[in-house]
Design brief:
alpha+beta; 8-stranded mixed sheet; 7 helices; 30% helix; 24% strand; elongated
Length: 242
């Protein structure tokens, strides 16, 4: 996989204007690359592609959970507890059918990936609780930016998803015994130097869309009339913010 820095360099190399203009910083290009990658990847996942790949998904290896009343997330009044993540979940991409989540798994005592949980909505789980009996299944859902699990005894889960936002370091690399310890270099790595979450076959499209957007945003051709009555075209840099 390419790094963000390499793709930024590729965009600059496509047009001399992009390589010389001071308004178009690496941060601006990188942000546009991420926006276009998100657009294309959501299109692919809607077509049921990329779900089995590791290219686009980020793993939170040990998301800490705590027990809370189920009434916190749905209209169910009887005494009942569920588990809720201690941290809010960074924005996860949404497709036509569901969140782009590859899986939520229980974490066993040795820190390994345990049983895969079933996805439901909060309202669907509330309806299940109203049935004469509830299947012995463990469910998960997202509500108010938190991840919930039906089993209130769960203390940690492994979440694998395609995030629209950067996952905070304290969430991505928790201090626990789940085997997720990383080096200081990894913690401090510049986002541009990390692998860019995009499959190789989409990179060309991402680069082209990014180049077109930057050119149309930062450069436009204006028509000026000279004193001699002649039309002259000149590049005009827009006032777009960084």
């Amino acid at each position: 996989m390419s790094t963000g820095r390499k793709l930024v360099s590729d965009v600059r190399g496509m047009h001399k204007l992009l390589s010389t203009d001071s308004l178009i910083t690496d941060r601006v290009i990188f942000s546009e690359l991420k926006n276009n990658a998100l657009l294309l990847i959501k299109r692919e996942t809607n077509l049921r592609r990329l779900w089995a790949t590791d290219t686009i998904f980020t793993t939170i290896p040990c998301l800490e959970m705590k027990s809370v009343p189920v009434s916190e997330c749905c209209d169910y009044v009887d005494p009942c507890n569920v588990a809720r993540s201690c941290h809010k979940i960074p924005g996860i991409a949404e497709g036509i059918y569901q969140y782009v989540i590859q899986g939520v798994y229980s974490v066993n005592a040795m820190g390994g990936k345990g049983k895969k949980l079933k996805e439901v909505t909060a309202n669907r789980y509330a309806n299940l609780l109203k049935l004469p009996f509830v299947k012995k299944e463990e469910y998960y859902w997202i509500s108010n930016d938190y991840l919930y699990v039906s089993n209130p005894m769960v203390r940690a889960v492994r979440l694998v998803a395609y995030f629209e936002e950067e996952v905070p370091v304290d969430v991505l690399f928790p201090e626990c015994d789940c085997g997720s310890n990383v080096s200081l270099d990894e913690l401090c790595k510049n986002p541009l130097d990390k692998e860019f979450a995009c499959p190789g076959y989409l990179e060309k499209q991402v680069l082209e869309l990014t180049s077109q957007k930057l050119l149309s945003t930062y450069f436009r051709i204006s028509t000026d009339v000279s004193n001699e009555g002649l039309d002259q075209q000149a590049p005009n840099i827009s006032k777009a913010t960084k």
